[in-house]
Amino acid sequence: MNLKSLSAVLLLGAILLPCGAVRAQTIFFVDATIPAPGDGSSWNNAFADLSAALDAAGSVGGPKVIRVAKGVYKPDTTGLGDPRTATFAMQADLEILGGYPGRLAADPDLRDPLANVTTLNGDIGVAADTSDNCYHVVTMSGIPDTGVIDGFRIRNGNADGTVFPHNGAGGVLIDTDSRAIIRNCVIRDCLSSSGGSGMRITNSSPLIDGCLITGHQAANGGGVYAISVAFANCSPRFENCRLEDNTATVSDGGAFYSNGASPVFVGTVFIDNVAGNRGAGLITYGGSAYLLNCSFFNNEATNIGGGGVWVAGAVVTIVNSVFSGNTAAAAAGFGGAIHTQQFATVDATLTVANCTIANNSAGVGGGGINLNGGDLTLINSILYFNDDHGGTVMDIDSQLNTTLPFSITINDHNCIQGWSGSPAGTSMQVGDPFFRDADGDDNIIGTPDDDYSLMLASPCIDAASNANVPADGADVDGDGNSAEPTPLDRDGNPRFQDQPSVGDSGEGTSPIVDLGALEFNTDCDVNGTADVEEIAADPSLDCDSNGVLDFCEFDADADGVINACDNCPSTPNASQADADGDGLGDACDVCQGDDAAGDTDADGVCDDIDPCPLDATDDSDGDGICDSVDPCPADNPNDSDGDGVCDSADPCPQDMFDDSDGDGVCDSADPCPADNPDDSDGDGICDSLDPCPQDAMNDSDGDGVCDSADGCPADPAKTAPGACGCGVSDADADGDGAPNCSDGCPHDPAKTAPGACGCGVSD
Length: 763
Description:
The chain is mostly beta strands. Strand 1 (26-30), helix 1 (50-57) and strand 2 form a beta-alpha-beta unit. It is elongated, with a radius of gyration of 52 Å. The strands form 6 sheets. The protein has a 22-stranded parallel beta sheet that branches. The protein has a domain at 307-522. The protein is built from 3 helices and 45 strands.
C-alpha cells in the first residue's frame, strides 16, 4: 500500500472485475431506472429495488448473486409496524454486487463501483431528517463467509434507540457469529446513541476489505464498536481499510472501540479521528488486537490520552506501522501515539516491532509511547521527534515515558531520541534517522504523504535484528505461511533487503532488515514497484549494480547519468559519447578521437604524441629515457661508472668503486686507492706496501729494522751503538768481560792491559 496517494487506501477504483462464477449461480438484476419492474431475471426485466431482489433470493437455494446498477436504494418499509426497523438483511450463499452501469449502458455488466456509484441509503422518511432514518441500513446475523456485499455506499443510518440492537450500528449491524465479507464499500455519515455508528460487531468475525468508514459520531466507538459478550469469539479482520474523520463525542474510541474483542488490522489507515477522552484511533479494553502495516495520522484524544492507540488490559501487537501527527494535547494528556494502562487489575501487554513513531505530541509525557500499568516489548523500531509539554521538550521521556507499575521485557535494536542507557537496551541507535520527507509534499505532519522511508545516510539501515522480526501472523503476503518472519514492510515491499553500500550493523545473516516500518529504497522513485523488482526486470536501471536505482543516486551535472557511471561526471553529456573509447567522454576529453588512452599523465600532451605518456614531466634529464623508467631521471648520463649510484649523487662518477679507502681521493686518481693515508713518509711506496711507512729511507743497512728505530742505521750488524759504537763490533775474544775495542789484551782473559810484563805474561 503506497500512502503517497489517498486513493491507494480505498481500492474502489481498482474494482473493474467481472463476477466470475465458480459454480452454478442464480443471478438477479436490480436497476432503479427500470420503468416497469420485472422478475429480476435480466437487466431489461430487473427489479427496481434491492429489497425485492433479496426477497427473491431468499426463496431459492444454492449460490446467488444480485447485480445492482448505479443509483440510490432504500430498505422497503412495507408492512412494518416501525418503519425504522427496515433494513437490507444479508443472506448466506449470496453475493450482492454494486457498481454496474445498468440496462441503459452499452455493456450493462461492465462493473466499476467508482464510476457507477451505488448507494444504500437509510434516509427512508423526511429527507435530511435523521430522526426518522432506519436504525440499520444493512444487517448480518449468523451469516457465514458465503455472504458478500461488495461495491456500495452505505449511509445515513441512525441507531438512536435506547436498547440493543437499535442503539448502535447505524450503518452495518453484525452479530451472532457472522463471518460475512464486506468489500470495497464506503460506510459514512451514520449515527448511534451508544457506539459503533458506522458498524457494530457482536460475537462475530467478519472480513472488512478495502472499505472506507468515515464521518460517524457516537458516544464511544464513533466508527466501529466490536464486543465479545460472554467471552464469545469476536475477531473481525480489516484489510486495506481507512477509518477517517470519526468521533467519539463523549469518551473513547474515535474510530474503533474494542471491548474484549480480538480485531486484526492489515494495511489499515486511521486518520483524523477524535475521541473526547481516550484512543482516538483505537481503544482496546481487554481482549487483544493485532495491527500489521497500519498507519495512524493526525488522530486526537482531546482530554486524557492515546491519540493513536489506547491499550487497557489487552494484549496488543503492532508491526510495520507508522504513527505520525497524533496528539494527546491536553495539559494532562499522555501518550500522543500510544498509551497503556491496567484494566480490571490486568496489565496491558504491548509489543511494538519494526514501527516508526515520530512527530506525535502529548501534553505531559510520552509523545511517542506512555507506558503505565503495562509490559512493553520494543524491537526494531524508531521513536524520534515526538514531544511533550506543549512541544517544548523532545527528550527520552518524550519518546518513551514510563510510570509505575510498568515493565519492559525487551528494548532491543531500536533508534530512540535521547536514549542514554535507560531504559536498559542493547544495540541501540540514537542518531537522527534521516527520514526522507517526514511532512510530505504538503509540508504538513500527520497526513498520508508523510514519507518516513530512510535516506542513505540513516544509521537505521541494515541495523535491526532479523531474529526479532515477528512471525507473519496475519499472512500479509497470502502464501498460507503464518510462521515465516513477516516478509513485507508497511508499503508491501520486501522486508528483507540489503543495501550494499551500507555496512551491516544489525543482527543476523544478510540481508539485514532496517529499523522502522519501511525498508530503505524499497520504492525510492515512488512508482509503486519495489526497486528490487524493477532492477531484476531491467538491470540497466542500476548502472553500478549497487542495488540502488540510478533515479535515486547523485548526478552532479544533471545529465541523467549518475556520477558512478558518468564518463564526464562534472560536464553534462547525456549521450556519453566516447569516440576514442578511452573511458573519458568526448565532452571532457582533451584528446578525443586521437588516442584510445587519452592523456594518461595529464601533461596536456595526448598519449599518441607523448614520448613519455606515463610521465607528466616526460624526460627531465633529456637522456632519452622517460622519467618513470629512468633510474636517474635528473642525470644525463645516468650512472657513468655503472656502480648503481646516479652521477649527480656519486662522489666519484667515473669510479665503480668510488673512493675505496675513504681518503677523499677517487680510486681513479688515488696512487694508493687502498690506503688512507696513502704514502706517509713520501718515499713513493704506498703505506700498505711500505715496510717502513714512516721512513723515507726505510732500512738503509738492510738489517730489518727501519732507520727511524735503528740506533746504527748504517751498520747492518748493530741496531744500537753498544759499548764500541756503530761500525765497531762489541766482541770479547778472550771472554773477560771487556770488549775487544777497549781490552788492552783482547786475547788474554787474565789481563785487560799489558801491565809490566805485557799481554800473555802474568805480572
